[in-house]
Amino acid sequence: MSLHRRTLAKTMVKHPTRILLKDPQQKKSPQVWMAKTIEHTQTLFYQMWKIRNTALHKDEGSEVNKTAHIELNNDIDEIYEAKPPTRLLPHADVQFFKTKKDEAKKYKLQRKHLWVRDAKRIIETYAQLSDNRGNLTHYVYIRRR
User: Fold this and answer.
1) Are residues 45 and 100 in the same domain?
2) Phi-psi region of 82 (alpha: psi -120 to 50; beta: other; left: phi over 0)
3) Residues 106 and 48 placed together within one structural domain of the fold
4) 53: burial class by Cβ within 10 Å (0-12, 13-18, 19+)?
5) Cα angle vertex 104, ends 102, 108, to 5°?
6) Residue 122 located in a structural domain
7) pLDDT tens string for the chain (145 positions)?
8) Residue numbers of the domain that contains 33
């Protein structure tokens, strides 16, 4: 055993708490190290989130977003052409389609994408419930409370 290890072992036997729990005011104490580690980790996650959010939502006028807007606007036109009659839809779906076509086209990209997704689901559900002539043969309306 080297001189350094023996000295360290003797010191730990005499004062084990002094070696393991240093003064929290010192730069090398476990508390300071843990606080700095947590701070760096949180800063890293925040920066990653901010970069992701900026990439997704900030630039509505980029070429990729412009083409996405055009595609979604075409989808909105198709949805309003394929929309079932409002008298046959449940109240919640009627409220969903109260949004005018021009209003839906003015949405930001993320909201427009979600609106198109929900509208397609409503139309697909209606198509599954109706026969070829548009009558709701297997449709059962469950009243929501």
Assistant:
1) no
2) alpha
3) no
4) exposed
5) 120
6) yes
7) 455 555 545 554 444 444 455 555 667 778 888 888 999 999 999 999 988 887 776 777 777 788 889 999 999 999 999 888 888 778 888 888 888 889 999 998 889 999 999 999 988 888 777 765 555 555 545 444 3
8) 3-55
